[in-house]
Design a protein that fits this description.
single chain; 743 residues; mainly beta; 3 domains; 37 strands; elongated
């Protein structure tokens, strides 16, 4: 006989609709079978087997587990608990296990725990293991529960594990299996239930109101999620495959449609310290927004009116979907991550006004870009492990901090290590006209970048909109790959916004020899070139990493500075490793960085590149760095190179070279040239042994020349004495001539 089952009677007195195939008759909850060729009995589990699955409580005979007899539609028990356990307003001293994926506390079907209530069958394969927990395993579970209740210490508990158990099949065939676990622990007053689910190779288990949950005894599942949730990849405690519920009372559960909101409260003393975040949690005074979706909360008061983009505000609103605003309209929003978020099932949003201690902590961050700023009021909002709507796997943590002294206002965004990328509509802030004042691009992963050279941290001055005509609101990476560090926190100066302008002269700490001439200062220009000058002589522009018509009026920034001792040491390492192991720069050079600068008349072409010049008085090296995340820069003799005063470009490869993906030192995007003399450094994408030999011979000749030059400064050298005598004779002849004709 073939049996189509009444689901409500599984593990009970079954009712069947019969079809003539194979006989299977229930008798007092036991089953008799007719042998078929499809039946294969599995081997016994080894008595010392211990199974460690990711995030599961350890199980197996070696961990003290007993194994249920092989069966189908069978309930086993009662099994005694070591201590009376409160469960949904009643107290129980024993429990029952059903093959079909549930646990109950009485012989009736009321108040069931069902991690996966479905028609299972262990007759041919799979095992169900169970035990009461000893002190060691109670302590292991305590660590899990303390994530939602830091003061809880269990004194008794049980664990039941369905290990590689298949669904019922009339022929005993299996098309995969399921592995899941239920753990119940209590301290005699509070009781917690934990479900653990295995992913691959186990079959996926999706939430369903009739198959996954907790029953109060009235056939009402108090765990109400949605059918798109894969239990092995979702969670209500941010550990994939793990779900924790507080189940000693039904208070607040029967009418709830939200699985974790009442059963996983945030501990009142919780304090969270994340790298570079302002500390948060109830333990530091945070309030918690109610669980919700697409909701706005407020108005919330600010201790002192805060200037923001030309207006002043004393209240603010928080929206679940990752933004803050200052009125009921959608204008003037601050949006660290404006996307469809949902805290009904997991995650929390914390907020508070800042006290003196935390204002001082923020002051330290802001002082990196404004050393005189001292905030007197502020607020912080933290989205902590908040998932996107309809997803338990895309979970985000980020924070917005706003501080002011009543005149100046700064906004700080902090991002944890999830993949939040910049988007015009999702990350930024606006002045009320839907214009995002934070200009970036979709290749920027915000937790991995910064505009203040602190990974995941972004700071903006937001008291006035006029600030943005001259400041750096664009995204400045912590350090672009292979670039020398740049930005405000690297002590750079920002070139004023404009078109066809240069900044300078910037005096060097010591004169630099460049292509047989001596220079004392430099000029940084918008149009991708660098000028060199000395005293009041005309400026020459011989260094051009990308000499083209660029503009920074609306976006992009150009940074420049003289090199510090730290910078010199960093450049030394690169030159030593790539071209000259003996070179040591002893005097400052400079670095100029064009960061996300658009071409004039075409904002779709955006470029990032850098030029570095270093010297030890005798030898000078020029380094160009190119970014491969912005528009490609292709070599051209008129756009890229370096030249002496005869206007001949000494860098001549070929026009097919993408500067960001090629190199003359075998590091993509990096180019290094020796520029103290007119010697032409090899310009191919690789440096051959012959070229290196040629360069070695050249360096030897140069050192001989400089040895001669050095001897002229040595009063004891033959060259010095000869030159002194010659000069003395010249002076004597000159004055003799002068006195003879004019005196």
């Amino acid at each position: 006989m073939y049996f189509a089952r009444n689901k409500n009677n599984m593990c009970g007195i079954a009712s069947y609709a019969t079809y003539p195939i194979l006989s299977k008759t229930p008798t007092n909850r036991t089953t008799t079978y007719r042998s078929t060729t499809s039946v294969s009995i599995t081997t016994q589990m080894p008595s010392n087997l211990i199974v460690n699955l990711n995030n599961f409580l350890v199980f197996g005979p070696g961990a003290g587990d007993s194994i249920l007899s092989k069966a189908d539609d069978t309930i086993f028990g009662p099994y005694a608990l070591t201590q009376n356990t409160p469960y949904l307003d009643s107290t129980y001293s024993s429990f029952f296990i059903c093959i079909n994926g549930y646990i109950k506390f009485s012989s009736s079907l009321g108040k069931q725990i069902y991690p996966y209530y479905v028609d299972l069958d262990t007759r041919y394969t799979g095992n169900i293991l169970y035990r009461r927990l000893n002190a060691t395993h109670l302590n292991n579970v305590k660590s899990d529960i303390n994530a939602v209740n830091s003061t809880f210490t269990p004194t008794s508990g049980l664990v039941v594990t369905w290990y590689q158990v298949p669904r019922y099949n009339v022929l005993g065939l299996t098309n995969g299996y399921y592995t899941f676990q239920a753990v119940v622990v209590s301290n005699g007053i509070q009781t917690y239930l934990m479900y653990n689910y295995d992913s691959s190779p186990s079959l996926p288990i999706y939430w369903s109101s009739t198959t996954v949950g907790i029953d109060t005894g009235s056939d009402y599942n108090v765990f109400n999620a949605n059918s798109s949730i894969n239990m092995a990849t979702g969670s209500n405690v941010n550990v994939n495959g793990k779900w924790i519920f507080k189940v000693d009372t039904t208070n607040g559960l029967a009418s709830s449609t939200l699985p974790p909101t009442t059963v996983t409260p945030v501990p009142s003393n919780l304090i969270v310290n994340l790298n570079n975040f302002l500390v948060f949690g109830p333990g530091v005074g945070d309030s918690i927004l109610s669980k919700a979706d697409d909701s706005t909360f407020g108005p919330l008061s600010i201790s002192q009116a805060i200037p923001y983009l030309g207006s002043s505000y004393s209240n603010y609103y928080i929206n679940i979907n990752g933004y803050i605003k200052f009125s009921t309209s959608f204008s003037r929003q601050i949006y660290p991550y404006n996307t469809d978020l949902d805290t009904r099932y997991t995650g929390n949003i914390f907020y508070r006004r800042l006290n003196a201690t935390h204002l001082n902590n923020v002051k330290t961050d802001i002082n990196a870009i404004n050393s005189t700023f001292t905030p007197t009021s502020g607020l912080v909002v933290t989205w902590y492990r908040v998932p996107k709507y309809g997803s338990q796997s895309n979970i985000y943590t980020f924070q917005a901090v706003l501080v002011s002294n009543g005149i100046d206002t700064y906004l700080m965004y902090n991002y944890d290590n999830q993949s939040i990328t910049w988007s015009l509509t999702e990350t930024g802030f606006d002045s009320g006209n839907d214009y995002n004042l934070f200009s970036g691009n979709s290749s920027i992963v915000l937790p991995n970048a910064s505009n203040v050279n602190v990974k995941g941290k972004w700071i903006f001055k937001v008291d006035s909109t006029s600030y943005y005509s001259l400041t750096t609101t664009s995204s400045t990476p912590l350090v672009n790959a292979n670039f020398l560090a740049f930005g405000l926190n690297a002590a750079d100066t920002v070139l004023p916004k404009g078109d066809d302008i240069c900044a300078g002269p910037v005096w060097l700490s010591q004169n630099i020899q460049y292509l047989d001439s001596i220079w004392s200062d430099f000029y940084a220009c918008v149009n991708g070139k660098i000028g060199l000058g000395i005293s009041n002589l005309p400026v020459d522009y011989p260094i051009y990493p990308y000499k083209i018509d660029l503009i920074t009026t609306s976006s992009g920034n150009i940074y420049y500075r003289r090199l510090s001792s730290t910078d010199l040491n960093n450049v030394k390492s690169e030159v030593n490793n790539l071209v000259d192991s003996t070179f040591t720069p002893t005097h400052g050079g400079f670095v100029v960085t064009w960061y996300r600068v658009p071409r004039y008349g075409s904002s779709s072409y955006i470029y990032t590149f850098q030029a570095v010049l270093v010297s030890n008085v005798i030898e000078t090296y020029l380094m160009y760095n190119y970014d491969n995340q912005t528009s490609p820069i292709i070599w051209s003799s008129t756009y890229i190179g370096y030249e002496s005063n005869d206007a001949i470009n000494l860098f001549n490869p070929n026009s097919s070279i993408n500067m960001a993906t090629a190199s003359n030192v075998n590091v993509n995007g990096k180019w290094i040239f020796k520029v103290d003399s007119r010697f032409i450094w090899p310009t191919t994408t690789t440096t051959t042994a012959t070229q290196k030999l040629t360069y070695t011979q050249y360096r030897l000749n140069i050192r001989l020349i400089h040895a001669f030059n050095d001897s002229l400064n040595d009063p004891t050298s033959t060259y010095y004495i000869q030159m002194k005598n010659t000069f003395t004779r010249f002076v004597n002849i000159f004055f003799s001539f002068f006195f003879y004709y004019f005196i």
